[in-house]
Amino acid sequence: MKADFQLDAKGLSCPLPIVKTKKAMADLEDGQILEVSATDKGSKADIAAWADTVGHQYIGTLENEGVLKHYIRKCTNDQIEEISFDQTIDLEQINNRGGIILDVREEAEFAFGHIEGAKSIPMGELGARLSELDKEQEIYVICRTGKRSDMAAQKLASHGFIKVFNVLPGMTSWKGTLIKNM
Q1: Residue range 27-70, pLDDT digits in tens
Q2: Buried (b) or exposed (e) across 9-34, using 16+ Cβ within 10 A?
Q3: Are strands 164-168 and 139-142 parallel, antiparallel or unpaired?
Q4: Distance from C-alpha of 12 to C-alpha of 14, rounded to nearest angstrom
Q5: Which pLDDT tens digit goes with each residue over 71-100?
Q6: pTM of this prediction?
Q7: Is residue 140 within 8 Å of 156, Cβ to Cβ?
Q8: Secondary structure letter of residue 181 according to DSSP
Q9: N or C: which terminus of the chain has fewer CB atoms within 10 Å of its end residue's CB?
């Protein structure tokens, strides 16, 4: 696929592929296509969700030998303002609360360490697995840094979930016990 600009985000993990993509998109003209090369498996869902939230067209992703090539078309010359999910909760406040902790990191990230009792639904599978969640239950969405969980919380809210909270700052700051499934 022909792209107007290529961005190398290989070796970077969330949120850096999105941060670099956002900066690169600012330099493109309306209709131009950005190709983002990444090795973070979570970038597929992250970049698609980010593009959707800011109004760019996520064209798709091709994978070759462990490198993901994401294609995004810029859809406006106007400055796009990202909207952050407004219902947040501090990481330290999620223990001993009714509800579920929804971990939207990739399966491997979850396996290497997660909060006890957390439910794993990777961001890329969230839309297809909404029926596994109870709209009446409080849902505390967590990821590695808070960026992916922000997009997941927005997705849940757009599907009628109202008791949703983005957990900040994310698993990178978790001081409690980690459960490992390896």
Answers
A1: 999 889 999 999 999 999 999 989 988 889 898 899 999 999 99
A2: beebbbbbbbebbeebbeebeeeebb
A3: parallel
A4: 7
A5: 998 987 554 566 789 999 999 898 778 899
A6: 0.71
A7: no
A8: -
A9: C
In the predicted structure, residue 1 carries a pLDDT above the cut 80: no
What is the end-to-end Cα distance of the chain in Å, rounded? 38
Q: Which residues are catalytic?
A: 14
Strands (E), the chain: 5-9, 33-38, 57-64, 67-73, 88-90, 100-103, 119-120, 139-142, 164-168
The answer to whether 111 touches 180, Cβ cutoff 8 Å, is yes
Q: What angle do the packed helices 43-54 and 16-26 form, to 10 degrees?
A: 40
Closest CA to 126 of 148, 99, 94, 111: 148
pLDDT reported for residue 66 = 94
